[in-house]
Write a structure and sequence with these properties.
Order of helices and strands: EEEEEEEEEEE
Structural class: mainly beta
Helix content: under 10%
Number of strands: 11
Strand content: over 45%
Largest sheet: 7 strands, mixed
Distance between the termini: 40 Å
Shape: globular
């Protein structure tokens, strides 16, 4: 059974940092695209960042570019999201996602992923 488990969420003040982690089990995603999405209360799920295995390409939503960094530990099928200079508008449940196809290009659409974690809450106070 494939599982993605996020951790690292919490309550921080504006301007502070958090690092989210996502660990995969049940199969390896070492060569597959992995990404992060988020869903704020009353809003639709939106793309945050993604990373391909091939060429190490990364993609970011404009709203987080320059503040968030996605990274991978391919040997462990893990993906991380370093979030700096957090803003109240970053408050959301953050979801890890993985695609069931090795060497594919990372997508910025939620439909481009096959597996999802249960989410971890990030709350940024002003």
């Amino acid at each position: 059974q494939v599982q993605l488990v996020e951790s690292g969420g919490g309550l921080v003040q504006a301007g502070e940092s958090l690092r989210l982690s996502c660990a995969a089990s049940g199969r390896t995603f070492s060569w597959s695209p992995m990404g992060w999405f988020r869903q704020a209360p009353g809003k639709e799920r939106e793309f945050v960042a993604s990373a391909s295995y091939i060429y190490g390409n990364t993609y970011y939503a404009d709203s987080v570019k320059g503040r968030f960094t996605i990274s991978r530990d391919n040997a462990k099928s893990m993906v991380f999201l370093q979030m700096n200079s957090l803003k109240p508008e970053d408050t959301a449940v953050y979801y890890c996602a993985a695609k069931d196809r090795a060497y594919a290009t990372a997508s910025i659409s939620s439909s481009g992923y096959d597996y999802w974690g249960q989410g971890t809450m990030v709350t940024v106070s002003s």
